[in-house]
Amino acid sequence: MTTSNDAYESLLQFMYRAPIGLVQTSLDGDIEMINPKSAQLLMPFSQDGSLDNLYTLLQDSAPTLRQLAADADPASGIICESLRISLHPEAAPSPSSPILSLSMLRLVDDLLLAVFVDVTLEVQHEQQVLSRKLSEAERVDKLTGLPTRVAALELLQTALDRPATDTRYGCALLYISCNRFKLINDALGYNIGNQLLSLIAGRLGSTLRSRRRDGEVMDGLPLTARIGGDEFAVMLDDLLVPENVTGVAQRILDRLGRPYAIGPHKIYCSVSMGIVVQNRDSGNASDLLQDASLAMEDAKRAGDSRYAIFEPGMRASARQRRSVEDDLQLALAKNQLFVVYQPVVGLQGEQYIDGAIDPCAGMEALVRWQHPVRGVVSPVEFIGIAEECGMIDAIGEFVLDTACRQFMTWQALLGPRAPRKLAVNLSREQLSHPGLAGIVDGILRSSGMPASCLQLEVTESLAAQSGSVLTRLHELKALGLTLALDDFGTGYSSLSSLHQIPVDTVKIDRSFVRYGDTSLHHRILIDATIRVAHSLGMDTVAEGIETFAQAEIVRQLGCDKGQGYLYSKPVVAADFASWLTDTTVASKS
Fold first, then answer.
1. Do the bridges between strand 21-25 and strand 31-34 make them parallel or antiparallel, or are there none, so unpaired?
2. By C-alpha distance, which of 275, 27, 66 is closest to 173?
3. Parallel, antiparallel, or unpaired for β 78-86 and 505-508?
4. Tens digit of each residue's pLDDT (9 = 90 or more) over 199-228
5. Under DSSP, is residue 210 helix (H, G, I), strand (E, B) or coil?
6. Nearest to 528 by CA among 491, 567, 563, 557
7. Among 286, 305, 321, 517, which has the minimal tally of Cβ within 10 Å of its Cβ?
């Protein structure tokens, strides 16, 4: 029969030989019994070589241990389970730093048992697995399954480091960006956007693979990668003929520009592309990718579904654009932007006798920039940059708010001689803003301006773009304002589709008006535009009138209003008021 002494002796032998650390302590953490394995595991944590109190010993590595013991549920007896402790908890684990797993429970009212297991190797293995997974995630895009930017740069650098031969020219890099992808995300949601990116990736791959099926000589194996949100890259390796690149580029543009069917949606998403053909002077993958990106931006500014081949001068242009962007940030902060006004005059009615005009028909508000060094900067030089860098919304709100308040000032000061209509342009980015109608309504309310006196102008190419733009236009019209189709004749719409766009005014582009008095062809186009617009209940404005002959032709053809240097250049508010007063007096005399 086994005595209690024998059992106790067996327990001591087990604790002494156990491959895990066992420590018995009092409620205050004083160590009453410790086996050799615990002493081995805990000695690195002792600063003075003593193993007297467990809480003191692990104060730096497990500072909450004492409180855990005090708060433990007496019914379960469990204080902690598998608590990871390390010698330097704030530092990254190193091979020489032990990592222990601590489980602790209450044996009886005044005794605690701590169990220590060395998990250093286990943690190192976990870190290796995690590192491998992160490396794989860094190299493979989860959404499309394509190589990522990191992987693409590595493969591109490998190609660039390859020794040049007499029979091979090098490689080409195609940088592809989706046009207005953000609009699709905003209108249809991120789930549809992700599905579209997957379809684009698949179509891009099939387009490149089809080169062999279509009988085209493939110079090398193409690499396709997703290098950003809606941006892709294609590397064509071992080019025999550099000119082959443009053929591949055009094929990609054509195929990616076809509609995508996602559920009930038929989505069009064109792309822009920048091309760099690597020659023997190139050698850095990151620089090559940056050059291709610059070319892509150049293609995007030129219009949809285009490619541009990189030229060294694009780097200087990019630096210049960056400089303008930085200065424009300061311009907004330091009130360097201001508004000028160009008259819109009436061409019809009794007041036109002997060439007199109605000077109160309206005015168009235009933004200018008073640069501290360059002087007055035309919007042609900075509006595109403002759109790209996200400042156009702030500029647009500034112009609208300033012009509305100025309009109301003129109403109070000039009475019946004040202009009857204010025209303000909308940019591409403003039209993509879901809250645009709310912003406009807020400005109308704060300025006190009647909505019926405001005309917002959108270019023909923008108005014909997508259903989301048409939705935004209808939201604006619901406020009670009017809409104008600017630069008509230069965009994508036609006279036959004019009725589909919810506008009240058609502005005939200056390129037609310029030759209206000398070219029968242009005169016929102006006449047709005016007739169709009037049949739809729209009025018309001829832009860019510079001579009396041009003004007389568009008036005879029935154009309602005119605008151009013949009447006045865009002027500041004070000069506009003077022009208005002088012209009104002249018209009556």
1. antiparallel
2. 275
3. unpaired
4. 999 899 888 875 544 444 344 446 889 998
5. helix
6. 557
7. 286
